[in-house]
From TrEMBL:
It holds the Pfam family zf-like. This is Metal-binding protein. InterPro entries: Zf-like. It comes from Senegalia massiliensis. Residues 4-83 form the Cysteine-rich small domain.
Length: 86
């Protein structure tokens, strides 16, 4: 079974690749903006806080070959956050 939906690459993007990586051919642009940002320290990524702002510039989890699977493993937590009524 094909799983091409898990990988997308946009070499024409002026920021490609937006992170330093060892192998550009495996850089996944599917999640250009990380959908797990709202999970704060529970996202599972390599981030740090700079002046109280989450800095994900050193994280490539969502841009890796297994990025889709990582995001899907945590997406229920994002849905939970989004479905809370203020």
């Amino acid at each position: 079974m094909s799983e091409n939906y898990k990988f997308n690459q946009n070499e024409k993007c002026e920021y490609f690749p937006c992170h330093k990586v060892n192998d550009v051919k495996e850089f996944n642009c599917l999640f250009c903006y990380c959908p797990l940002y709202a999970l704060k320290d529970k996202c599972g990524g390599n981030f740090k806080y700079n002046n109280g702002i989450k800095d994900c510039s050193d994280c490539t989890i969502t841009h890796s070959k297994n990025g889709y699977d990582h995001v899907m493993s945590k997406i229920s937590k994002i849905i939970e956050i989004g479905s809370k009524i203020d």
